[in-house]
Design a protein that fits this description.
about 475 residues; alpha+beta; Beta-Lactamase; Helix Hairpins; Heat Shock Protein 90; 3 domains; five-stranded antiparallel sheet; 12 strands; about 55% helix; rod-shaped; membrane; transferase; transmembrane; HisK_dim/P_sf
C-alpha cells in the first residue's frame, strides 16, 4: 500500500508538472501579443489608471489570467485584480528574464502577487518606449478564480480517488489475508487429513496409504514439528502394539508350556496318592514308603516350578524392591561355592574362586545377586560332566568389577545361544536329571541383573564349556569409610 501511495503521489506530481509545462508553452506568447497589439503598452504606457481598466477588461474576457504591469526592477505599478487582493508590492524579475531569454526550461514559475511565497507559471514580455525599457507585462496563468474552481474539482476527484484506493486496498488486503490464511492453515489441513487416514486405517501403520505428508523436524513451523511428533507417536504406538502382540503370544505359549509342566508332576502326585488311598491295606511298608517318597519328590518339583513362575511374574511386573548396600564380594562367592560343595563332590567337579582371596567391595542387593549366582552355578553343575571344573573369576574392567562363571561343560551351539534367555527355552543338549526344570532360570537371572543395572552375557563353545559374565559397581575405600 505504501508503494501504491508513492506511485500515486509521483504520478500526480508528474501530471501536474506536465500540465503546467503545456499551459506555459501554450500561452508563452500571450504577453508579447498583448504588448504589440495594445496601443497603451506599445507606446510605453504612463496612464496606469487606463491600463488598469484594460487589464480588468482582459481579465473578464480571460478569467484564467491575471495581469500585472511591472517596472524594470519588478515593482508592481498596476494590476487587474480587485484592490486589496494583491499582497506583494514587487515581483522577482529573475524568472521573467529566464522565460524571455533563449535558455528556457519549462515550466518556469514566478512569484504570485496574491500570496507571498507562492509561485505560479506565467507569461511575460518587455515593454519598450523608443527602445527604452519601461517595464514588463506579467501575466499569471491560472488565477485565483481558476485555482478556486480547480480546487473544488480536485477535491471531488480526490474523494473519488480515495474511494477507489480504499476499494482496491481492501481487495488487495482481502487477497493477502486469504493467501496468508491458506498458508497458515494448509499444514493444519494436511495434518488433519493424515489423522483421518490413520483413523480410517484403524490406527494400523501397515494399512496406511503411502501418500502421508512429509514433515520437517527442524522447521520453525510449529505445525511441521507437531506433524513430526504425530508421526513419531504413531510409529511408537505401532511398535508398542507389535510388542504387546508378541508378548501376548509369548504369554500364551508360556502358559500352555507351564500348564503341561505343572500337569506332569501334579498327575503323578495325584496318581500315587490315589494308589495309597485305594490300596492302603494291601501295600507293604516298603511300597508305601516308596510311593510317599515319589509323591514328596513330585510335590517338591511342583513347588519349585510354582516358585519360579511367581518370581518371573513379579520381576516382569516390576514388583521387586531392591536393598542395595556395599559388601565384600569374596565372602559371597565362597559362601555360594560352599553351598554347592556336596553336589559338586557327587560328580567329582571342582569349584574354585579366582583369586582365592581379594578385598573388592561391590554395591548391590546381596540377596538378588546370591539368587543369580545360585542359578548359574546349579546350571553349570548340571551341564558339566564328571571331573569337570567350575571357576568363579573376578577381575576389574572399565572401573567396574567383572564376575565370570566358567565351566568345562557340554557348551551351547551358536544357533541356540541367542535364545537361552527366553522363558521356557531349553537347549537340545540340556542334561536331564531327577528334578523337573521349566526353563525359567536364565530368564530370571537376566531380569535380576537388569534390576542391578547390569547385563548378563554368555560365551560358549560346543563341547568345551560356557562362560556367563556380568559387571558390578565397584566401591572404593573412601566410600566404605564414609
Amino acid at each position: 500500500m505504501l508503494v501504491i501511495i508513492a506511485c500515486f503521489y509521483s504520478t500526480n506530481e508528474l501530471q501536474k508538472l506536465t500540465q503546467q509545462e503545456a499551459q506555459q508553452k501554450l500561452h508563452l506568447g500571450l504577453a508579447e501579443h498583448l504588448v504589440s497589439d495594445n496601443p497603451l503598452l506599445k507606446e510605453g504606457v504612463y496612464d496606469y489608471a487606463a491600463l488598469s481598466n484594460l487589464f480588468h477588461t482582459l481579465m473578464i474576457l480571460g478569467p484564467n489570467f491575471e495581469f500585472y504591469y511591472l517596472d524594470p526592477q519588478g515593482k508592481i505599478l498596476t494590476y487587474s485584480a480587485t484592490p486589496g487582493k494583491v499582497k506583494a508590492t514587487s515581483v522577482n524579475v529573475g524568472p521573467i528574464k529566464q522565460l524571455i531569454g533563449d535558455n528556457q526550461s519549462f515550466p518556469v514559475e514566478g512569484d504570485d502577487p496574491r500570496q507571498l511565497g507562492r509561485h505560479k507559471i506565467f507569461s511575460a514580455a518587455p515593454v519598450y518606449n523608443n527602445e527604452q525599457l519601461q517595464g514588463y507585462l506579467y501575466v499569471i496563468i491560472g488565477g485565483e478564480r481558476y485555482d478556486s474552481i480547480l480546487a473544488n474539482l480536485q477535491n471531488s476527484q480526490s474523494m473519488r480517488e480515495i474511494a477507489i484506493f480504499l476499494v482496491v486496498g481492501l481487495l488487495l488486503l482481502l487477497i493477502a489475508l486469504l493467501a496468508m490464511f491458506k498458508y497458515f492453515t494448509s499444514p493444519l489441513k494436511r495434518l488433519s487429513d493424515d489423522m483421518d487416514k490413520v483413523r480410517d486405517a484403524d490406527f494400523h501403520r501397515d494399512q496406511l496409504p503411502r501418500d502421508l505428508a512429509l514433515w520437517n523436524k527442524n522447521s520453525y513451523n510449529e505445525v511441521d514439528r507437531l506433524g513430526c511428533a504425530f508421526t513419531e507417536m504413531l510409529a511408537h504406538i505401532d511398535s508398542q502394539f507389535d510388542q504387546l502382540s508378541k508378548i501376548d503370544t509369548q504369554r500364551r505359549v508360556l502358559l500352555a508350556d507351564l500348564s503341561h509342566d505343572l500337569r506332569t508332576p501334579l498327575a503323578s502326585l495325584q496318581g500315587y496318592i490315589e494308589t495309597l488311598a485305594i490300596n492302603a491295606d494291601t501295600l507293604s511298608v516298603e511300597d508305601r514308603k516308596h510311593f510317599v517318597d515319589i509323591s514328596l519328590k513330585n510335590a517338591k518339583n511342583l513347588k519349585h516350578l510354582i516358585d519360579q513362575i511367581f518370581e518371573l511374574a513379579y520381576l516382569e511386573g516390576g514388583q521387586v524392591t531392591l536393598h542395595q548396600e556395599p559388601f565384600p564380594l569374596g565372602d559371597l562367592l565362597h559362601d555360594v561355592a560352599a553351598k554347592f560343595a556336596l553336589d559338586a563332590q557327587e560328580k567329582n567337579i571342582e569349584i574354585r574362586v579366582s583369586p582365592n582371596h581379594f578385598e573388592y567391595h561391590v554395591f548391590a542387593d546381596i540377596g538378588k545377586l546370591e539368587r543369580v549366582l545360585t542359578n548359574l552355578i546349579a546350571n553349570a553343575i548340571r551341564h558339566t560332566p564328571e571331573f569337570g571344573k567350575i571357576d568363579l573369576v573376578v577381575a576389574t574392567h572399565n572401573e567396574k568389577l567383572r564376575v565370570d562363571i566358567r565351566d568345562t561343560g557340554i557348551g551351547i551351539s551358536d544357533k541356540e545361544i541367542a535364545f537361552i534367555f527366553d522363558a521356557r527355552y531349553q537347549a537340545n543338549n540340556t542334561e536331564k536329571d531327577a528334578c523337573s526344570h521349566a526353563g525359567l532360570g536364565l530368564a530370571i537371572c537376566r531380569k535380576l541383573m537388569a534390576l542391578l543395572n547390569s547385563d548378563l552375557k554368555v560365551e560358549s563353545q560346543l563341547g568345551k564349556g560356557t562362560c556367563f559374565s556380568f559387571e558390578l559397581t565397584l566401591v572404593n575405600n573412601n566410600h566404605l569409610a564414609h
